[in-house]
Structure formats: C-alpha cells, structure tokens
C-alpha cells in the first residue's frame, strides 16, 4: 500500500519543476520503471494533446503521466483513456464540480473543457496515461470561451496536492477494475457520465465527416451514431467530435 492510499498508481512519484512533456519523459523511462510510477510537473513547455495538438501547461495546473503495464489484449487498451476520464470526473465531483465526459477523452464543465486525457505507448510493453487538468492555472485568453479551470468554477484556489492525491486514488480504483477485466462496468460508468449521448454531433477524421445522433457506446468503447443511412460505429481513434 502506498502512502497515497493506493495499490498500484502512485507507488513512485517523480516530481519535475519543468519538463517539455510528462508523456515524453515517461516514455523514455517506462521500461526501467515499475508499473504505477507517476511523472508530475509544475509546468510543461511542450504539453501534448490528441493528434499532435499543443496543450497549454503553465504553473498551477495538474500535468501528469502514469506508466502502466497491463497484461491485456490490445483490443482492450483503448479503454484506458476512459479510466483516466472517469477518475478526473470523480475527482471533480469530490470538489463539488459536476463534470461530464465528452467522448472519447475530454472532461467538460458547464460546456467548457477542463481536462484532456491522452494514451500512448508500445504494444505489450507499456502504456502512458497522460492527464492535463486545469486547476489554478490561468486559461489563455484565446481559450476562455471553450476552456475553464477548477479555480474559475469554484471562485477560489484549490489545493493542488489534494487534487493530485484524490486523482491518484480514483485512478487506482478504475485501473483495478480494468485489471480485473471488468470492462462492462467501465463502459457503463462512461455512459452514465457522458455528455455526448442523445446529442447531434459531427465526427471528423483526416478524410471524412460524419453527422448523426449519438445513441450508445458499445462494449469496446465505440460511439454508435444514428445517421440517415443507419447506425454507424465510430472507433475512438484519431477522430474529433463536435456538437451541432
């Protein structure tokens, strides 16, 4: 048992005042570190989002990556992005912030993004689960219409240490379910916390756009869209989802 009250996540904490990207740092050390090692930085100079996007990461936010080494079939590994999002939602609720998940990897509060989750890795070697949560950091002026922070929502400073410890415990809980192969429970929780289901959305990938009503998330985490041509299954890969 770790001092954080968790079984696996957070057994070792690597704290860095500054790094280009906690995900990149974690990938470099992953093979030599035990599972559950967490890399957390006060600030990132080249924070990463999905599809190569940048992620503003000034001091005051929670920028962290977790080294995971699950013995699971590759088809189940995409579910790890959901346990990250679920852990963040549970953490925010502990602070009195009602949040929801915008499939596949964003956490939103009051119609604005507060957190992004990113998974990277090498099949059968490791997975890096990266989380960027806006806590007390200033949201850039150009993003204030679409992004928010815990401080802005609550109108007060939040203990970064308390947020971190709470998130670690929640991650440990959801990762335990993943290791126990309780994928159905994870997907059920994802659907309960979804802000996408029942909404008209547009799915955009590198080549096509698809418009439809989000009606379900299946056992593999794929989003089911009802379109004029029938139901379409959208995998949680390199796609973007926008509300209409």
Automatic annotation (TrEMBL):
Pfam family, one: BPL_C
GO annotations of cellular component type: cytoplasm
Record bears the keyword Nucleotide-binding: yes
InterPro entries per record: aa-tRNA-synth_II/BPL/LPL, Biotin_CoA_COase_ligase, BPL_C, BPL_LPL_catalytic, Transcriptional_repressor_C
BPL/LPL catalytic domain sequence ranges: 1-179
Record has Iron-sulfur as a keyword: no
GO molecular function: ATP binding; biotin--[biotin carboxyl-carrier protein] ligase activity
Keywords, sorted A to Z: ATP-binding, Ligase, Nucleotide-binding
Coiled coil: none
SUPFAM superfamilies hit by this protein: C-terminal domain of transcriptional repressors, Class II aaRS and biotin synthetases
PROSITE patterns xref list: BPL_LPL_CATALYTIC
Protein name from the UniProt record: Biotin--[acetyl-CoA-carboxylase] ligase
